[in-house]
Amino acid sequence: MRSRGYLAFIVGICVTVATCGFVVMTQHQQVQANFQRDADKVAHDTEVRLQTYFDVLLAIKGMYALDQDIDRLRFHRFVAELKLDRRYPGFQAIQFVRAVPQARLAPFVAAVKGDTSIDAGGYPGFLVHPANLRDPHFIIEYTEPLKGNENAFGLDLSALPPHLKALELGRDTGEIVATERITLVQDATGEPGFVARAPVYRGGVPLQTVEQRRDALVGFVAIVFRVSTLMREVIDSPLLEHLHVRIDDDGYFDAKAAQASNADMLLYNSAGVAGVREPLDGLVSQKALLVGQRRWLMRFEGYGGGRYGRSPLPVLLIGVAGFIISALFGALLVSNRRVVDAKHGLEYSLAELERQKANVEQARSDLAVVVETLKQAQTNLLTSEKMASLGALVAGVAHELNTPIGNSLLTASALSDMVRDFERRLAEEGGLKRSVLEAHLHDARKACDIMNSSLTRAADLITSFKQVAVDQASGQRRRFKLDEVVHDTLATYAAQLRRSGCEVRVDVPPGLEFDSYPGSLSQVLSNLIGNALLHGFDGRGHGAIAVEALRENADTVKLTFSDNGAGMTAGTLHKVFDPFFTTKLGQGGSGLGMNIVYNIVTGVLRGTIRVDSSPGAGTTVTLVLPMQAPQEPVPQEA
């Protein structure tokens, strides 16, 4: 019996060591998964942001394709309509670079000095710099905004080898080409930057060969970036406390092999030269991005801490508990020797008791595993529900954008046909009547107005969607106006509401300013709209939703969301906040929508929620929210 006690103690210790090793391995895998997810998100967000900026560059190139005689005033007005400080904060400047042959250099300089379209005094101090004899010259003619970028005005890029190489490659390929790492002449900080340019050719000439493209070149439209400013718009600053990001320029993508990393290649270093810490074992990753025919290498390193930390407490607790249980169990078996010698009649009862105890321990362990599995499943379902909501936003905005963009494309095609017909008639008749010219100008102006209205509508929709999507994805606290969040959220659901024949009425005063979490509030409104469409208006051809807000006192606001849908029975109303409870199981309902709403309202926003409903009379959800949320919200369980 004594040997059995020792054997049980050794086996218990072995099981404890194995369990501790399994917990350590699981923690390591979870940390690596979190790090890889963060690295993939930063790389993807960088690629998407650069593609958005390059799309703007192509839009400017398209303006020149319609009319190559764009003067300084029209270029200034076009850039002003882009609202760079609000929509594209990563830009340093937008420029037009003109290709000027040596023989036309003097008339070109005189024309720029005498240009009074914006400044009545012209630009008498305009100077092409640095002086060189290369032909042709590539001179920065327009730069917006001019304030802060005066040093770039008149810069001859043909005298600067890094710029000249990129210009010649863009001219010969017809594609957007980025420069290598450069120091911007208009940036006194000396931080790394780069310029992306797209070539502009004369219209109506063939561009199939390199020689044809060289002969047809007019100039380049360009966007100037400072990499640190660009990355501040991509990476959340709290993430940089745990994740080190470094970007190196590895040269043009057709290079034979990657270059060794050095200071001349460095575009961005999130921690600075002296702030880089030693990464955790295994938390190192690298991704390559293609940016304007250049290859960027993004290197990621994870630091130890709260986000990628590995807590020793669970391992310590398991080890101590396992040792104590093994010692007690072994001591129990050893002490049973005396009991067996004294009372043989109790041997069977004690053995049976030990077996029952082992069964209970096993059952408890199995139950703990089941509970942990259920908690993980609930967490995954909560995440899926939120991502499904964001996916619905994307689908709705994409559907809503089809109309204005389609109108713009149709109008642009019609305008192109009108211009070709106008050119044909001018060539055939040798001259046109004033009435024909006025009619053509009227039609062209009307087409431009249609495209401007449609594209403005699309830009406003995208701005609303970006604000709602960023707020829901980041969950950051900021100051916001309640009516703007309500209208932005409803705008992203405009397509779904219109397809459902749902009428929306909003009565939210414009002066209600919150210091809270707009993403969480938008998530609540999204779930309530989804519930109304899925449950309240199921089987109905039309319906109505009302969103109203009323200031109760100096610190709180009552927000009411109501619909005239099918309503709920008393039994359904009693369980409406229970997780996994749904009347649409297997039909699109997960049972977590109202549970998420309850947790967000009471845990994050620190407010209260009440639901009133009866069959056939619709549903009313009343939220009482503080205008200034507590500093550290703690999520609660429903």
From TrEMBL:
> Which keywords has UniProt assigned to this entry?
Coiled coil, Membrane, Phosphoprotein, Transmembrane, Transmembrane helix
As for subcellular location, the record says: Membrane
Where is the Histidine kinase domain positioned along the sequence?
Answer: 396-629
Q: Name one GO molecular function term.
A: phosphorelay sensor kinase activity
Q: Which Pfam families match?
A: CHASE, HATPase_c
**Chemical reaction(s) catalysed:** ATP + protein L-histidine = ADP + protein N-phospho-L-histidine
List the EC numbers from the record.
Answer: 2.7.13.3
Name the UniProt record assigns to this protein? histidine kinase
Give the organism the record lists. Duganella vulcania
